[in-house]
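hey can u run this one w/ flavin-adenine dinucleotide bound, need the structure tokens asap thx
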Amino acid sequence: MYDFNYKRASSVDEASSSVSNADEGKFVAGGMTLLPTLKQRLAMPSDLVDLADIGELVGITVDSGSVTIGAMTPHALVHASDDVKNAIPALSKLAGLIGDPMVRNRGTIGGSISNNDPAADYPSAVVGLGATVHTNKREIAGDDFFTGMFETALEEDELVTKVIFPTPEKAAYMKFPNPASRYAVVGTFVSQGPQGTRVAVTGAGPYVFRQSDMEAALEANFAPESVESIKQDDADLNSDIHASAEYRAHLVTIMAKRAVAEANG
Ligand SMILES: Cc1cc2nc3c(=O)[nH]c(=O)nc-3n(C[C@H](O)[C@H](O)[C@H](O)COP(=O)(O)OP(=O)(O)OC[C@H]3O[C@@H](n4cnc5c(N)ncnc54)[C@H](O)[C@@H]3O)c2cc1C
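ok here u go:
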């Protein structure tokens, strides 16, 4: 490890100003991605600003039309919440499929979406449900939040405070997990509700995307048969030791078909 300044912020404002006043400041949530990145010298920030003491960033609120999750809420809490299970069972399931128990206890929704790993699960729910990301500066539509591989619309000192998910009429998430890490080789989140008919795909491309051909077909008829013959173009998909672009394209259709079947109960 190399030297850096470490601070535990006690409020959102203090955290944001500490990062903006640093040479190169970084927020730390559970450290699940950030700490390995530092150890490998892939990032060398001058200041780490820990969000762990900011109580207002942790928690889940459910009302008649939405589920609100604080940025520092760990995946395990989202998965275990009966309120989330009742309102959006697909979101509870998704959180329970992330990594292993330690990752689910330390990793947070804010850290996950801010990091925007191409194989992360939460981005598919944010886009697949038409959620809104709230920061200390503004509200960002889920569709506009993810801008590239490991890139988001966030500014350097901008802190995600919460994510608001509209409650869908039906929704489901299916993923083909990497057997070692559980990250998504391909994950498909489908929903129908106040944000229209949505199909969001993670793991397959550089970052989460909507599958518009499948959305149009499901808009006409929300049934597994509607998507089973729709092929995903593999031109821009990821290809690595885990799966070829062609195989990922195939999985997009399979995961979508299974997700629609599950959403229909
Ligand atoms: C072994 C392993 C397996 C995993 N498997 C999966 C999986 O199957 N599916 C999956 O989706 N994920 C998986 N993950 C990722 C994990 O779930 C975490 O969500 C992710 O690592 C982020 O961790 P964190 O919340 O601790 O954020 P940190 O590592 O602390 O931070 C990550 C980044 O986000 C920034 N950040 C953190 N919080 C905020 C905020 N509120 N506002 C703005 N920026 C912020 C930090 O500055 C940093 O750049 C895995 C991780 C590990 C280590």
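Residues 26-34, 51, 71, 75, 98-99, 103, 106-108, 110-112, 114-115, 120-122, 154, 159-160, 181-183 surround flavin-adenine dinucleotide (CB under 6 Å). anyway lmk if its weird
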